[in-house]
Every structure is written in structure tokens, then in C-alpha cells.
């Protein structure tokens, strides 16, 4: 699994209303990812039970090129532009897969 490329993104949303709209935007984006991104191996959005205004994304790509392709997709560009109105802050941690159990990069 050493060639996988991933990231974790933690979003802090403005409030519950922003969270609802953000979740809708994420669902739309995920449809584009499913249809058009074979190099995106995992794209999972988590809520945090004790922090209702937080969402955590876990993303795993076959390699850095697959991530770069993801960033150029129209649905991703739309998400990146629209998300700003719903979030108060975000933290991104890039990951390099070293081993474990899960989807194997191509």
C-alpha cells in the first residue's frame, strides 16, 4: 500500500444551518466523484457525535496523480468555491500510506 496518497480534512462549520447546506453540497460532490474518479479509492465524510458542527473527511487516492486529477474536476472545483460560505475553519493533514488493511492502490 506504499504508493497510496491520502488526506484527512477537518471542517468546522458556522452553525447547524450551515451544516445542513454543507452536507447537501458534499452529497452532490460525492456523486461526481463516484461517477468520474476511478483513482479515488476512498472518499468518506464523518460527523463527530460530540461536535455537531464538525465534519471530517478521509480521502485515499491511488497516487498523487489521482489526487491532482480530483482537484481539477468540475464537481470538486464547485465544492471548493461553495464551501467557504459554510465553514468557520479547516485543517488539512496529508498522508502517505505505509501499510495496513484496506483498498490497495492500483
From TrEMBL:
<protein>
    <submittedName>
        <fullName>Antibiotic biosynthesis monooxygenase</fullName>
    </submittedName>
</protein>
<dbReference type="Pfam" id="PF03992">
    <property type="entry name" value="ABM"/>
</dbReference>
<dbReference type="InterPro" id="IPR007138">
    <property type="entry name" value="ABM_dom"/>
</dbReference>
<dbReference type="InterPro" id="IPR011008">
    <property type="entry name" value="Dimeric_a/b-barrel"/>
</dbReference>
<feature type="domain" description="ABM">
    <location>
        <begin position="5"/>
        <end position="99"/>
    </location>
</feature>
<keyword id="KW-0560">Oxidoreductase</keyword>
<keyword id="KW-0503">Monooxygenase</keyword>
<dbReference type="GO" id="GO:0004497">
    <property type="term" value="F:monooxygenase activity"/>
</dbReference>
Amino acid at each position: 500500500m506504499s504508493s497510496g496518497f491520502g488526506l484527512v480534512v477537518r471542517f468546522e462549520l458556522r452553525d447547524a444551518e450551515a451544516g445542513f447546506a454543507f452536507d447537501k453540497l458534499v452529497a452532490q460532490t460525492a456523486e461526481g466523484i463516484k461517477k468520474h474518479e476511478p483513482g479515488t479509492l476512498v472518499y468518506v465524510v464523518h460527523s463527530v457525535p460530540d461536535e455537531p458542527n464538525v465534519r471530517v473527511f478521509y480521502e485515499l487516492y491511488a497516487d498523487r496523480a489521482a489526487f491532482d486529477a480530483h482537484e481539477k474536476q468540475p464537481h470538486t472545483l464547485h465544492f471548493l468555491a461553495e464551501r467557504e460560505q459554510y465553514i468557520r475553519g479547516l485543517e488539512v493533514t496529508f498522508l502517505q500510506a505505509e501499510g495496513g488493511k484496506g483498498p490497495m492502490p492500483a
